[in-house]
Amino acid sequence: MFLTKNAKTIYFLITFTTIAILYVIFRTQTTLHSSQFKVLNTSDIIQHLNQKHNVHNNNSAILGLNLKYKLSPAPCDIKTKLIILVTSHFHNVEARSAMRRTFNTTNLHALSVKRVFLLGTVTSDKSTSQASIENESIRFQDILQGNFVEAYRNLTYKHIMGLKWATDHCYNANYVIKMDDDIVIDLRRIIKDLNIGVLLENKKNFTLLAGYALENMVPKRDPANKWFVTHEEYPEDTYPTFLSGWFYITNPTTAKLLILASKMHQYFWIDDTLITGIFAKFLEIKHVNLAKFYTLHTEFVWCCIDDYVNHHLECPFFVGPNGGDANLFIEFNKAVGHCSVEKCIPREKSINETCIRTARTQLGPGKSQSIETYKLF
């Protein structure tokens, strides 16, 4: 039986439309259910959350604080692809200096990176003053200081401040890294692995929380413990999965959602648990576990330095503790440079089998909250 010309046209349109609808449904289901990432239409999600929880996104209060910047660096430029937020303490001048000597502003700009150090308000102190922090800010233009007191239990304010600044001033960036100032990182490798998709594909428009995932962690209920948490502060028996605040990767899109979630929750002083755990669970964001790229032992960092310099061996990790030695950041990245002169070769044995250095237990003054609390060492 032959179809008329008009009938053929109608048949073609119906068939094409059906295939197109089925394809869209398939792609949507694949994205939402088979991937670790969720496609975002940020404005729709924000509108949905605002309506559901009666929260307005233009509300300036974050976790009960009317956040203001006492010191703020210049916004990212259009070429910035990665913003690094470094949780620091106003005393940790040496740690900030080590990072700047390793990668100065010119180096970072060439890598399309901007680095910002996060500080609270300086209290009366013999060794540091607000004037010295302001001078440091004028000289290096990389200090973000909030209107809250520099204190251990205010780390959540510092953390959320950095994310908010990044969403407001670095919206062109593909990635946001949040890290502490008492660790070492191989920045060039991180950038390379991000660019070639070894770590993650470009997820600028997807939810993203990637780092050292901590599961089934329980609150400390012993009042004698430094990290004692009352049932009023956190009533559940187990924390949701969260990422160590030591170092994790997100993006401006996800950071914007985390900021919104902060307007729907009460303050909790364990910052990584709240922001990458409680907020992530609320937003239904899955974590990407990058634990294999971390070492939890300073002696392994030193062994990698030895292997880089003397044997041109690849290092299995790109994040590790500095063991209280701020200059280890410099030494580690200097050693990494040997692989650019003469290409490093893969390891035949794990670093656990070859490293014979004495374990270092000193954590130093700039201790990471998540490392201390959850004893990753």
Give a written overview of the molecule:
This protein is α/β, with parallel strands linked by helices. The protein has 3 domains: 34 residues; 246 residues, Alpha-Beta Complex (Spore Coat Polysaccharide Biosynthesis Protein SpsA, Chain A), CATH 3.90.550; 81 residues, no CATH class. It is 41% helix and 15% strand. The chain is built from 14 helices and 12 strands. The strands form 3 sheets. The protein has an 8-stranded mixed sheet with strand order 3-6-5-4-7-10-9-11, sandwiched between helices. A hairpin with a 2-residue loop joins strand 1 and strand 2. Helix 6 packs across helix 8. It starts with a helix and ends with a helix. The C terminus is likely disordered.
Give a short summary of the structure.
The chain is built from 14 helices and twelve strands. The protein is of the alpha/beta class and 377 residues long. It folds into three domains: 1-34; 46-291, Spore Coat Polysaccharide Biosynthesis Protein SpsA, Chain A, CATH 3.90.550; 294-374, no CATH class.
Sheet-strand content, in percent, reads 15-25%
Stated plainly, the CATH topology of the largest domain is called: Spore Coat Polysaccharide Biosynthesis Protein SpsA, Chain A
Q: What would CATH call the class of the largest domain?
A: Alpha Beta
- Give the beta-strand count: 12
Provide the structure class.
alpha/beta
Estimated radius of gyration: 23 Å
The biggest sheet amounts to:
8 strands, mixed
Mean pLDDT metric: 83
Which descriptors would you attach to this protein?
14 helices, two-stranded antiparallel ribbon, alpha/beta, 12 strands, eight-stranded mixed beta sheet, disordered C terminus, Spore Coat Polysaccharide Biosynthesis Protein SpsA, Chain A, 15% strand, 377 residues
